[in-house]
């Protein structure tokens, strides 16, 4: 996968792109990332990339010209790739696991990070997606782009040591992940449940599903409304509700 990031603050990406999963993906040549300062594409001697909005209003707007020229260079460097161009915008569609899975199927992603009051509306004609990290405003799109890149890249084949990890993560299955434990079996009186220590894989799988349902019911009950429930899940959820009501 190739990822391009257009930003005014390229140094913000140095740490995240050299550490942990992202750094290893780049080392293994599973991922190529280029971070570009689009100020370099300004067409005036002061290298301004923003200007006052027509009609008045607070703040400055990101100009269309530097973005257009930066995207043109990307297309010239990689004319053979199909690109998904993502504009980081508080008014965009909210990013979620499903979107990360969609992005992970692409061969080339381009993230445009704004850092002003807004964008010249004509910039939107160059993008395929307008995406927001959530219902709040950040000082720029850089942090949002980092989060989306991380969530996307970890889904690429061979990036994680165990591909099954990405499949069973919270949200990937439509449920929050069940509780997990490691050694010791008893730490200061806090014991690992016997059912997941007995080696019976059928009972372990049932316990994991039930506890995923319990955690989702407790913390994110609205997720259950979107879930296609099997007979087993319906039965286990009924048990969870009864147990929680009796606490």
TrEMBL record:
Annotated keywords: Cytoplasm, Methyltransferase, S-adenosyl-L-methionine, Transferase, tRNA processing
NCBIfam families: PRK00026.1, trmD
EC number: 2.1.1.228
Protein function: Specifically methylates guanosine-37 in various tRNAs.
One GO term (biological process): methylation
Organismal lineage: Bacteria, Bacillati, Bacillota, Bacilli, Lactobacillales
Localization terms from the record: Cytoplasm
Family of the protein in this entry: Belongs to the RNA methyltransferase TrmD family.
Signal peptide limits: none
InterPro entries membership: Alpha/beta_knot_MTases (IPR029028), tRNA_m1G_MeTrfase_C_sf (IPR023148), tRNA_m1G_MeTrfase_TrmD (IPR002649), tRNA_m1G_MTases_N (IPR029026), tRNA_MeTrfase_TRMD/TRM10 (IPR016009)
UniProt name for this protein: tRNA (guanine-N(1)-)-methyltransferase
Entries under HAMAP family matching the protein: TrmD
């Amino acid at each position: 996968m190739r990822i391009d990031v257009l930003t005014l603050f390229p140094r913000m990406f140095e740490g995240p792109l050299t550490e942990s999963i992202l750094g290893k993906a780049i080392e293994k040549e599973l991922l190529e990332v280029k971070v570009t300062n689009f100020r370099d594409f300004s067409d005036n001697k002061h290298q301004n990339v923003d200007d006052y909005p027509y009609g008045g209003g607070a703040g400055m707007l990101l100009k269309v010209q530097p973005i257009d020229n930066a995207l043109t260079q990307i297309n010239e460097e990689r004319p053979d790739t199909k690109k998904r161009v993502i504009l980081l915008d508080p008014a965009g569609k909210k990013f979620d696991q499903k979107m990360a899975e969609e992005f992970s199927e692409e061969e080339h992603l381009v993230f445009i990070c704004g850092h002003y009051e807004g964008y010249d509306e004509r910039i939107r004609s160059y993008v395929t997606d307008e995406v927001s990290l959530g219902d709040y405003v950040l000082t720029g799109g850089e942090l949002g782009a980092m989060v989306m890149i991380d969530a996307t890249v970890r889904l690429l084949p061979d990036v994680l040591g165990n591909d099954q990890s990405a499949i069973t993560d919270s949200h990937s299955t439509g449920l929050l992940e069940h509780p997990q434990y490691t050694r010791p079996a008893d730490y200061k009186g806090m014991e690992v449940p016997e059912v997941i220590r007995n080696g019976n894989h059928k009972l372990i799988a049932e316990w994991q599903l039930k506890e995923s349902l319990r955690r989702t019911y407790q913390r994110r009950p609205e997720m259950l409304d979107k879930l296609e429930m099997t007979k087993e899940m319906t039965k286990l959820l009924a048990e969870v509700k009864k147990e929680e009501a009796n606490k």
